[in-house]
Amino acid sequence: KMTQQMRDLQLAQARKPPGPSSPNAAKRLYRNLSGKFRVNYTSFDEGSLVGRGEKEKLRKSYLFQSNAALFEAVELQDLDRVQELLKHYSLEELDLNTPNSEGLLPLDIAIMTNNAPIARALLQAGAKESPHFVSLESRSLHLSTLVREAEQRVNELMAQVVNEAPSADCSEKEKQLKAWEWRFRLYKRMKAGFEHARVPDAPSSVHISVASSSSLRVTFWEPSSVNLAVVTKYKVEWSCSPTFSPLLGEAVIDKLKDLHFTIQGLVSGTAYHVRVSAYNMKGWGPPQASMPPFAIPSNWREYDGRAPRRRGQAEALDHLLGQVKTVHQHCICHEPCKNQPQSRKHSVSKSLKHLFHPGSKFLKTLKRGLYLTAIFYKDDNILVTHEDQIPVVEIDDTYSCLLMQDFLWLTKVSCMWDEILWLRQCVTVSQSSCSCILQTRFKMLLAISQMQGLLGIQDLGQVFFEPIKDKQGNILIVTLKEVKTNQTFESVRWVPICKLQTSRKSVSSPEEPTALDMLLISVQDKLAYHQRSSHALSPGLYLGYLKLCSAVDQIRVLVPERLPNILCHVRIRSNPNISREEWEWLQKMASVEEPVPTEPEADRSQNSFFQELQVAIKELMTLVNIPLQEAKDFRLYSQEVLDFGDQVSFLLLLPPSDDVCTAPGQNNPYTPRSGFLTLPLQIFELGEER
């Protein structure tokens, strides 16, 4: 009866020819296909194929070869080749979860031969066990049938080889005999592995934490015993009762790349108990209860019912901007910009000059003045003009010094590159006041429009946090933008950065470098800053250090060079949520004037939070080069948790109130090590928003 089932299965899997006839044949298959493993079938020239049918036939041929090679690699216990195949082919291309003619999947072979490394690699790639094994009895019967039929085939071939005279047919039968002997040994090893296996132990550890006011995060670890069969899935169960009766829910986890699960849809303020059990080919093992024994979904905002700080702010700002635009809709500022009345002589001179210079152009050299340059980069290439110059336009040739307030205003304008024309028109109306500040800002808007028009690009990117100044009186404001796609432009072209730097060195004066020379010398640092300032933190709860220093016209904030859009920080834990109980404990500690006790008198979850916080404070003090004994005077900001979306949150560590902001000329006895910089506060705020 089982033999008939096997024949039916072979017919159903007729599209999968049998594998190589021997281990040596399998090795030859690897050698022949080794070059093909590294090239996807779509990379071949399909233009020479005749018709769609031929293309599909070739595609299936390559997919079959990769699938057969994976089976052989698992059977030969070749971990390196298994990993190579999983790396170069997707789950669908490998046909990873379709049984072969013996009703087996690669994962079945790996776990029944107890090859844990290969089994883990397959599980992380998404492999599953064969659906034919619905019970222990069916698996045992299937393995017994495979062993019996392989043994029968070996005996038949043995008799034929012994009784036949030496010939080519006899030589072929000897090869088949060796192949079937090898397969017979494989099936016996699989059967023995199954018979000696036992159900897995409980997971070695289960930890629960409060993920939000309606969810718990469960993290668990593999059973500690190393002599068991490979675990292929886990089951998470939860209940309001410590006896788990009644059971409120369960979830089976068969994607084992990360051993964690988030239970959603829970009731805030209700205590939940959680346990986890492991599964292998012998069934489910005993459950492991979580530590702490229960958790209550909550969020720190429930402590005083506080609403999120940013709720509705973006919508309110959009509405406000819309109202401003509506008010100006019928204003004169929406008429085309008109030049100021000029004398006839100047107009004639300008018109004659216009005959020889039909339009605005990029500047080649700098005079004493204020300029705008835009750096667009892709990999190691940068956009330059046809004269191999970085695009530069003039803002004001009579501007001798850049006021910080004008520069910071321009950084805010960089959030509205698409609105430059509208801003120009509105500022034009205000020019009647003859304000020097408004005139300078109007010239900045004109320069931006000119740069956008010459490049044909609206978005000029992010303004670098400080202008470049040279001894000749030039001031250069730099914008930076990374281009992700291969774009072509009419007035500029791509060149390697190193080539541009080399050509510039040959014509520049090292004694008195201009602002452009200084830009090219430091361009790699500026590009690195721009890339790092767009990086996001991985999810978690962080401890940030707020340190300010003031100057005459600005306040600057200390940030790490590796992530300049975030305060100096260390990660406390991967869970960004602070529960109500943890926040209550923090409030109590903030109100106590004595030093924090070594161990808080609280439950296990609060004790765990205290330990995590202690470790983070020590790590942060070391990072910013502050002796640990000084930390006793530092304070945790206890007014709120700073939430950045749903995945990142911050607690702030503040120096003593007199040291939060260092005044001009004031000594800071604890200077951070290298790897930090100070940004103008407004620049930092814009970077954080981005």
Blueprint (SSEs and pairs):
Blueprint lengths: L1 H11 L10 H15 L13 H25 L3 H10 L2 H4 L11 H7 L3 H9 L11 H28 L4 H29 L8 E8 L2 E7 L11 E7 L9 E5 L6 E4 L8 E9 L2 E2 L3 E8 L17 H15 L16 H13 L13 E9 L2 E5 L6 E5 L7 H10 L6 H11 L5 H20 L6 E2 L4 E2 L5 E8 L9 E5 H9 L9 H7 L1 H10 L7 E6 L2 E3 L4 E6 L7 E6 L6 H12 L12 H20 L11 E2 L5 E3 L3 E7 L6 E2 L13 E5 H9 L1
Parallel strand pairs: 9-14, 16-22, 17-23
Antiparallel strand pairs: 1-2, 2-5, 3-4, 3-6, 6-7, 6-8, 9-10, 9-11, 10-15, 12-14, 13-14, 16-19, 17-18, 18-24, 20-22, 21-22
Helix pairs in contact: 2-3, 3-4, 3-6, 4-7, 6-7, 8-9, 13-14
Radius of gyration: 35 Å
CATH architecture of the largest domain: Alpha-Beta Complex
How many domains make up the coordinates?
Answer: 4
Principal-axes geometry comes out as: extended
The helix content, as a percent range, equals 25-40%
Counted by DSSP, the helix tally is 20
Q: Alpha-carbon distance between the termini?
A: 68 Å
InterPro entries: ANKFN1 (IPR039269), Ankyrin_rpt-contain_sf (IPR036770), FN3_dom (IPR003961), FN3_sf (IPR036116), Ig-like_fold (IPR013783)
GO cellular component, one term: spindle
Organism: Cnemophilus loriae (Loria's bird-of-paradise)
Protein name: ANKF1 protein
List the main descriptive attributes of the protein structure presented here.
5-stranded antiparallel beta sheet, alpha+beta, Nucleoside Triphosphate Pyrophosphohydrolase, 24 strands, single chain, Immunoglobulin-like, 18% strand, 690 residues, Serine Threonine Protein Phosphatase 5, Tetratricopeptide repeat
